[in-house]
Amino acid sequence: MGALPAPAVTFFSSRGPSKASPGILKPDITGPGMNILAAWAPSESHTEFSDGGVGLSFFVESGTSMSTPHLNGIAALIKSLHPDWSPAAIKSSIMTTSDAVDRTGVPLKDEQYRLATFYAMGAGYVNPAPAFDPA
Question: Where is each Peptidase S8/S53 domain found (predicted)?
Fold first, then answer.
């Protein structure tokens, strides 16, 4: 069935506001970040070997930054449906249709099961379906 609460803000997720730029609130949105894997192929000039001396065909990374391809894919799909929308309109669509509740309808929580603040989750957890037609 899956873990509960889900989704939740992980302990390693960045929190806002930025100390360098406190007037800029981050994060904007929360996306899938726990147990999300991203693979990338090494370049010709950069070869890694496993402990057994065998060349690796790809690398694997995990973490909240790995949600970036998911969010970029959602933005690309929205752009394909609305080619006249600006990047700001696409961002607005994603943020204003996000969810501040988990899949059971309870407000999003952080890793300590406390209510997640907007400094932890931004506008909320991305919800692609309504973002395609936010009106």
Answer: 7-104
